[in-house]
Amino acid sequence: MNETAAASASAAEDGEPDRGAADSAGPADATDPDPVVVGEGVRKSYGEVVALDGVEIRVEPGEVFGLIGPNGAGKTTLVRALTGTTEAEGDLRVFGVPPREVDPQRIGLLPQSFDPPERLTAVELVDYYGGLYDAARDTDPVLRDVGMADDADAWYETLSGGQQRRTCVATAIVNDPDLLFLDEPTTGIDPAGRRSIHRLIERLAGDGTTVFLTSHAMDEVERLADRVALLRDGAVVAVGAPDELIAEHGGEPSLAVALDGPADEAAVEAVQEALSDGAAEEDAPGVESTPEGLRIGGVRPEEIGDAVDALDAAGVAFESLAWSEPSLEDVYLRLTGEEYSPRSEAGSGSGTFDETAPDGGDR
Ligand SMILES: Nc1ncnc2c1ncn2[C@@H]1O[C@H](COP(=O)(O)OP(=O)(O)OP(=O)(O)O)[C@@H](O)[C@H]1O
Known about the structure:
Helix content: 25-40%
Number of helices: 12
Number of domains: 2
Radius of gyration: 24 Å
Structural class: alpha/beta
Shape: elongated
CATH topology of the largest domain: Rossmann fold
CATH architecture of the largest domain: 3-Layer(aba) Sandwich
Order of helices and strands: HHEEEHEEHHHEHEHEEHEHEEHEHE
CATH superfamily of the largest domain: P-loop containing nucleotide triphosphate hydrolases
Number of strands: 14
Bound molecules: adenosine-5'-triphosphate
Distance between the termini: 52 Å
């Protein structure tokens, strides 16, 4: 039995859920003034291990709320506490009531690990989970939503990892939940599958579903989340819209210069000196050695040509250049204290260049 079934079962074990109280919290639509999720001073320990250390969190109706943080930060524990699959201290409210009193019909949960109850096909599995609720959507359109219509009759255990994950997402949305918890929904899913899950999340959010998303894929969270909370050592250390967090904590745009290894001190100094030529010291871009070469900070796109001139003047022959804007990944790396790691692949807001087009061509 997985946590979805466990959540329903735990509600049943505790007696009939307090539907009156849940209903009085009102439907989860954009006009609902009450937060969907509130956590104040949430604590949870496993023996000596403090998994949650005073979490403060608030999720508004219709939001896609992203929860990020390093391995072991407490994300899954928080999801479990909010879905009533584990007990935690503090004040937790979902639709205005303690998690175990929420009408299970209103909640969808894709747990991090999923253990189907027995040998079933994808369609049988979604039927099974649909049967746990008073009202469920038809299975076929749910499987279509997650791109599994063509493999509906395949045994779950014979599906690829990505197909299995998409089937799991189907079990989490079969009851058309008002609040959907997705704990790392795209882990192991190929790029096309990820896109289909992203579109599905966008569509669900557009229809008013509140989505609580945990992920290690920063691009995914940056794209999907209205607001993001960064959890570190069991506490929220930053929360805000991705743009706000990037502006506050992401740092500056930079130019990654690929060499045949880390730049030595002399090369860093030479480039720094060439860049500083004529500029006030505080205005000169910062240069630092990286495992791949060196990084010049604070370079705007129109300044890439100047940076290339400085590299030439310093006698630094580079293999390629990659300019990038700060992203949520930079926020994550800075706030978690993990080592700065320049992104090498081109993505949104970034571009790669080679030496034959030092000004970046027609970007
Ligand atoms: N059932 C458990 N028994 C003992 N310790 C646990 C249990 N569940 C979680 N922990 C511990 O609590 C801490 C938080 O774990 P949790 O799984 O919530 O982190 P996470 O942020 O979801 O990590 P990941 O990104 O790796 O999934 C970790 O130190 C973990 O080892």
